Amino acid sequence: MTSLLRRYGWLLLTLLSTSLQAQTLWEGASRQRLAAIFADGLHHQPDAAADVAALSAPFLGVPYRAHTLIGSKHTPERLVVDLQGMDCFTFLDYVEALHRSHSERDFLPALVATRYSEGRLDFRHRRHFFSDWFARAPVNALDITQSLSPAAQTVVKRLNAKPGPPGAEYLPGLGIVTRHISYIPASAIDAALLAKLQNGDYIGIYAPSLGLDITHAGIFLRTTAGPMLRNASSRSSYRRVMDTPFLDYVKHTPGIVVLRPL
């Protein structure tokens, strides 16, 4: 069996890639951007966090674009690849998929593995919440929030529960998920905490709402200008992927959730 896999593994990968191509929505400009990223040879970083930091750089300046994904309780899921416009979460999807890829051919399977639990391309298996990255198998990253600060707090959430009549959902048909979410309050984000963060850590901005885990996400970076949050900003004055001074941003938030890439 091992020898057969070795001999015909390339064929299996080709068939999988061909099948995904048929289910994928992406335009020529996104394909060209992907090719350029691989041509730049960015996959040569010393560790996972550095790899994530480097692979996020080509997206700087890309316009913010919300609601690009297709799929719902009543609409069949499609694998959307839009490298020309992204929100804060699809930005992380693309960076993590690149981190998992060794070549352009790997990218679509890697994106499926990143965006969907169990690699199943359907609405119910899509990782709709930031905490799905560490709570649904196979995991995308490790939740290290509790280990970073003694001030970390843990709250029991009912994810997808929407204020209103009983049973109301933000995403109809997804159901309610009870989950423990740990976060570090903004008041506890100090020099000692910053020293423990690594280039490329995934940062979620904690949401006080019972039905949400975070409201925004980005990537932590150390730069010559100080710590930054690389993020797809929806603010009307920005509307693009950019670097925002980390401390200036998080001090006005309830706190942060920190995931470390594998």
Automatic annotation (TrEMBL):
Originating species: Lasius niger (Black garden ant)
Keyword set includes Signal: yes
Protein name stated in the entry: Lipoprotein
Residues spanning the membrane: none
Keywords carried by this UniProt record: Lipoprotein, Signal
Signal peptide: 1-22
Stored SUPFAM superfamilies: Cysteine proteinases (SSF54001)
InterPro entries: AmiA-like, Papain-like_cys_pep_sf
UniProt key word Signal: yes
Pfam families xref list: AmiA-like
